[in-house]
Amino acid sequence: MKILKLIFIIFLIFPFHHLKADETDLQNKIIKNLRCLICQGQSVYDSDSEFAISLKLVVKNKINDGLSEKEIYDFLIEKYGEWILYDPKFNKNTYILWFLPLLIFLFGGAIVFKKLINIK
Amino acid sequence: MLSSLMGYYSLIFGLCISLLIIFFSVKNFKNSNILDSKILLFSFLQLVLVFVSFLGLVISFVNSDFSNETVFNNSHTTKPLFYKITGTWGNHEGSLLLWLLVLTLFIFIFLVKSKNQLKKYRILTVIFQQIIIIGFFTFLIKTSNPFNYLFPIPEEGLGLNPILQDPALAIHPPILYLGYVGSSIIFSSVLAATTLNYINNDWAKHIKGWILISWIFLTLGILLGSIWAYYELGWGGFWFWDPVENVSLMPWLALTTLLHCILVLEKRSLFKSWIIILSIATFTLSMCGTFLVRSGILNSVHTFANDPERGLFILSFLFVLIFISIFIFFVFHKSDNKKLSPIFLLSKETSIVINNWFMMYFLSVVLIGTVYPIFLDVISSQKISVGPPFYHKLIIPFLIPFLIFMAIGPRLKWIKSELKDKLSLAILLIISVLLSLFIVRNFETNYLLNSILIGSAFYLFFITVRDFFSKKTQRLSQNIAHFGFSLLILSILFNSIFSNEIITNLKVGESYKDDDLEIVFNDLTKENKKNYVLFTGVFSIKDKSFNNILKPELRIYNQPNIITSEADIKITLLQDNFITINTVKNEDYFNVRYLIKPFMLWIWVSVLLIALGGLISLFNKKHEE
Amino acid sequence: MKNKTITTIVIFFFIFVFLIFYKGLNNSNIYKPSNNENKIIPKFSAYSFFENKLINSENIFNQKKFYLLNIWASWCVPCRDEHPLIMSLKGNDKLEIIGLNYKDNNKNAKKFINDYGNPYSIILLDKDGTKAIELGAYGVPETFLIFENQIIKKYIGPLNSELILEIESFIK
User: What per-residue confidence (pLDDT) applies to A18?
Assistant: First the structure.
């Protein structure tokens, strides 16, 4: 029974063997991470505004110039501020942002631990 | 005009009835053991008045009565009838009227269905719900009146955004609100029960039905919103971690957690304080979400027109509710620490505790991600964005243990249990891991995390499928819901790993060709429709598994002046083939996007399965009664 | 008592949250980047409109005078509105006005200049919008006041008479 299920699933997966071009991958990865500044809450990837189209071109040019992902982000942050990045940088402004959920997780863990200690 | 007057005065009368209801409720609280039938009568009357008001607005929309400011701002004579009607709730004022409708409807149904409950409990629930209702009446009448009169009467309306003229989007608010606003009953009920020290097994059994109803509608409402975003917003995405989406997800997470806790309270006397807090939190999150979305404090695709005055009102109202809740909790709730029943390590109670732990973590991630930019901006004037990468990084790793606990947890018995079938559980775990490694290695993705994640999702998948074949039908609802969840995670993962996309610029007659695929831009036809000019592109797409014609559209509206792009999607069991075209400024070619999105259908089906699990549980409950 | 401390903490926490949201309401939600001011203008090169020559920005902003860099386009309605105000600054010999034509079509741009006047000593072409991004702009119209290679002030959106007065006071 289980083996049949296994074979069935593998059969489903087989049509999807595409190799993606690395360069477009990187470009897409970057522009999905950039906010379209004149839209209300869309990424540059999703947007078709003039600004988004130009920014896609700028990113493409920078990749062709050999800049790394981080360097492109730094370039754009220098122009537009951190607001343009969807992945919040990890700096003194965002320690709380990244750590607070984890602290809550640990705090929750402590409560769970305390509750489970009440074992007869 | 008459309909607007009728609508407006119904609201005024409705508000007056609230005061009447509270008066009779307070009076009835101490005397007699029977609920005063006047309370039921007035609640019904209030529901009718709100419904009449709502109907008044609908009629104004249907008649394109532009003397009504809301109709003027949001409608147009050339809009098709269906969208004139659904446009009633597609705007700020109308959607608030929908809020009121659900609030009054639910309290009336509550009164009718709770005849076996204690009178004092029913009255207090009514009073708390009326506080919420009065708040909304006041908000509506004072800051968001749907029946403002315009003079001179404009000839034509400002029209609704054509992107919003869509069937899925039309029914998304009512369904969502039945869940979102429906959690108000849970809020009122828990406050009433806490005051009367009625938080026990009976109350749990009684409130579980309401939790299920609210949860099912919220699930379906979120699903509809995602489906709409997928085919309308055009880029194949269905969840963007946009503030408005997060705002509907947070009550859902709280409700799911509450549902699991209530299962415990039905059988044992545990987690009472926590359940009270969760119940309060669910509706508080709904209200907080309403605030975030309507006040203009956040920047999002979906926000209604922003207005700080409205924002201030909701904010104050929200905190009034919070402080009432805090007061009642600390004054009336007596936690019975003395009889602390022990929890054994290997038991269903433990797995629910762990479920709560993880769910609250996920909730905190979404909440912090959504509101942190506001805090940072106020405190240090820095503007940052928190988008999908944040949520993915914090949620995905924790899904792995979560899925495994989901697989093992339900098999444990109450109080004390042993883990039966340890051997088969272990074998399934190994098979899952091997299968996912095979998939990941063969398809050149190099995400180690994803492979472990797929492994744990498969594990849950196999376990729940296997449980279908065992004879325990009372666990059917839970099994379907958990199975649906595993399918959801698997579908989302496969969809994100194996999606493919081609973006190219083509003129009519040109084609795109690479090793796997050929796209031919055959033709572009033009047709004049009722309120737009339609350009249809005809594309032949040929690849290894697909050979078909797709027809994406460009619609040029005149009121307002917008061009929208409508994707053509061919849906099959295995994948969606998705194409859109867009104009390019100053050029005579089109920008064509062709996407292959595997397993999209299964993403939707899995959410339906989750909701189905809830529905089965609801029917089981009714069957028991 | 343990209960009292928890209650007070909870109440203060919610008061804090209320104040933050209240203050957040009054903050403007519109993105106004002020971090480009007092920065050195980035170097870029662009083709000039009439002579079709490639010009380097270093060769433009190198004199001891104020420069007004105005990003405009013929399809941009607010640009049309602000254009007469820019024309009014034309005669001032302490100020040189440079135009950056954004994502435009040469024919339409030429018509715009013919119809509404040309205050620009040089017009640079930005056909794909990348030069504007180099400058940290994101739309039209935007205007930069530059002196000694530094951005003194950045104006997002069309200029009005108030802002023109401000520019004039800077120049003095």
Answer: 43
Q: How far is residue C87's CA from residue C112's CA, in Å, rounded to a whole number? A: 13
Rounded to the nearest 5°, which phi and psi values hold at B583? -80, 155
Chain C: residue nearest A38 by CA? Answer: C138
- Where do the domains of chain A lie? 21-87, 90-120
Is the pLDDT at C34 greater than 80? The verdict is no
Query: Which residues of chain B are within 8 Å of residue C28 when distances are taken between CB atoms?
Result: none
Compute the distance between CA of residue C60 and CA of residue C96 in angstroms, rounded to an integer. Answer: 10
Show which subunits contact B, needing at least 3 CB pairs below 8 angstroms. Answer: A, C
Task: Tell me the HSE value of B106 on the side-chain side, using a 13 A CA sphere.
Answer: 31
Q: What is the DSSP letter of A18?
A: -
Let me know if residue C29 belongs to a domain.
Answer: no
Coil vs helix vs strand at C155:
strand
- Quickly tell me which residue has 């108030």 as its tokens: C162
For all residues of chain B together, what is the average pLDDT? 88
Provide the CA B494 distance to its chain's centre, in angstroms. 23
* C20–chain B nearest CA distance, Å: 6
Task: Write down the architecture of domain A21-87 according to CATH.
Answer: Orthogonal Bundle (1.10)
Least confident of A4-8, A16-20, C24-28: A16-20
Q: Which long-range contacts (CB under 8 A, 24 or more apart) does A38-43 make?
A: A38/C138, A38/C139, A39/B301, A40/B299, A40/B300, A40/B301, A40/B303, A41/B240, A41/B242, A41/B243, A41/B299, A41/B300, A41/B301, A41/B302, A42/B301, A43/A86, A43/B240, A43/B387
Residue B169: partners with Cβ closer than 8 Å, 6 or more residues away: B90, B224, B225, B228, B232
Chain C touched by B465 (CB under 8 Å): no
pLDDT confidence of residue B559: 67
User: Count of alpha carbons within 13 Å of B171, Cβ hemisphere only?
Assistant: 8
Specify if C15 maps to a domain: no
Domain with C167, as residue range(s), is 45-171
Q: Is B29 on the interface with A (CB under 8 A)?
A: no
Distance CA B609, CA B136 (A): 34
**Does pLDDT of B163 surpass 60?**
yes
Nearest to B326 among C3, C10, C31 (CB): C10
How buried is residue C28: exposed, middle or buried, by Cβ count under 10 Å (0-12/13-18/19+)?
Answer: exposed
Q: Give the DSSP per-residue string, B536-602.
A: EEEEEEEETTEEEEE--EEEEESSS--EEEE-EEEE-SSEEEEEEEEE-TT-SSEEEEEEEEETHHH
**What is the model's pLDDT at position A48?**
82
Are the beta carbons of B326 and C11 separated by less than 8 Å?
yes
- Which of A15, C61, A103, A116 has its CA nearest to residue B394? A103
Model pLDDT for residues B105-162, shown as the tens digit of each residue: 999 999 999 888 888 999 999 999 999 999 999 999 999 999 999 888 998 888 767 7
pLDDT at position A21: 47
pLDDT in tens, B558-600: 767 788 888 999 998 888 999 999 888 777 888 899 999 999 9
The model carries a pTM of 0.91
Question: If you measure CA to CA, which chain C residue comes closest to A62?
Answer: C130
Cα B261 to Cα B192, B216, B339, B355, distances in angstroms: 19, 17, 19, 9
Distance of CA B304 to the CA centre of its chain: 17
ipTM of the complex: 0.87
Q: What is the DSSP annotation of B249-297? A: HHHHHHHHHHHHHHHHHHHSS--HHHHHHHHHHHHHHHHHHHHHHHSS-
Nearest Cα neighbor of A35 from A24, A49, A25 is A49
- What does the alpha-carbon distance between residue B383 and residue C35 come to, in Å, rounded to a whole number? 11
Structural domains counted in chain C:
1
Q: Does A111 touch chain C (CB under 8 A)?
A: no
Q: How far is A16 from chain B (nearest CA, A)?
A: 6
Q: Assess whether pLDDT exceeds 50 at residue A120.
A: no
